[in-house]
Every structure is written in C-alpha cells, then in structure tokens.
From TrEMBL:
GO biological process terms on file: DNA transposition
A Gene Ontology molecular function term of the record: transposase activity
Protein name: Transposase domain protein
C-alpha cells in the first residue's frame, strides 16, 4: 500500500465533511522551545540507536571470532570494551578498533546532549506531547 499526499488530503477532506468543525480536534503549533525539545529528543534517539548498533556490531565480531564468552554486558563501558578487544585475533582487531572509535564519538555526543539539556532546562515546562526521551524529563 503506497502513501501519498493526495490520498492523505482526501482522507482529511472526508473527515472534515463528516464532522462539524467544532468537534474536530485542534492541534496547537509548537513554539520554538517545544521544537527545540523535539529536535533534541530525535537527536538523542538517533545517537542511542547508533550506540546500540555499534555495540551489537562489536559483539558480532566476538561471536565470529569464536569468543562467545564475551557478552554484551562486557561491552558496556569503554574500559571493558578495550580489554575485550585485546582478546580478539589480529584479523578482527582493526575493525574492532574502528568500532571503538565510533562508540567513543557516539558516547561523547550523548554526554554533550545530556549536559546541554540540563543547562537549558532551568525552566519547568510541561510538554504537550509525550515522547520516550530520557533527555527531557520536564514537569
């Protein structure tokens, strides 16, 4: 099933025709602060997804190398990852080191997002839209 703007427009038009305007829900336009919060949430979600993806990729290298005793728990911290990567056979080392660099960058960016948000959230605001975003626990 394909989705197009034309089909969406028709659905909206039919909805408006079936219901009186007073009964239709109103959706407030988000202000700049709300837009910034949404953007920050999206960015954090993307970096968190990348973190998980990179850890999973690193874990798969251990599995390919036959080091099945290394679990994802062993890959949670930078220090443990570096210790674990040292156990890999040399043919897996370079790829693992590149993944470690990516993980460092991702964790650094997530730390910056959390740090920046804690400074900017001195005001207590109640979000109009709930999203699963750890960085925005404002109330």
């Amino acid at each position: 099933m394909k989705k197009t703007d034309k089909e969406d427009s028709l659905k909206i038009a039919r909805l408006i025709q079936r219901h009186p305007i007073e009964e239709l829900p109103t959706v407030p336009i988000p202000n700049d602060e709300e837009e910034d919060n949404r953007r920050l949430c999206t960015e954090q979600e993307n970096w968190t997804r990348k973190l998980t993806q990179s850890k999973n990729r690193l874990h798969s290298l251990f599995t390919q190398a036959g080091l099945t005793h290394i679990t994802k728990k062993h890959l949670r911290t930078k220090a443990n990852r570096e210790i674990s990567v040292a156990l890999l056979p040399s043919r897996y080392q370079k790829e693992a080191e590149r993944i470690l660099k990516v993980l460092d960058l991702v964790e650094q960016n997530l730390k910056l997002i959390r740090k920046g948000n804690s400074r900017s959230s001195t005001k207590k605001t109640k979000p109009m839209f709930r999203r699963s975003c750890l960085c925005l626990e404002l109330e």
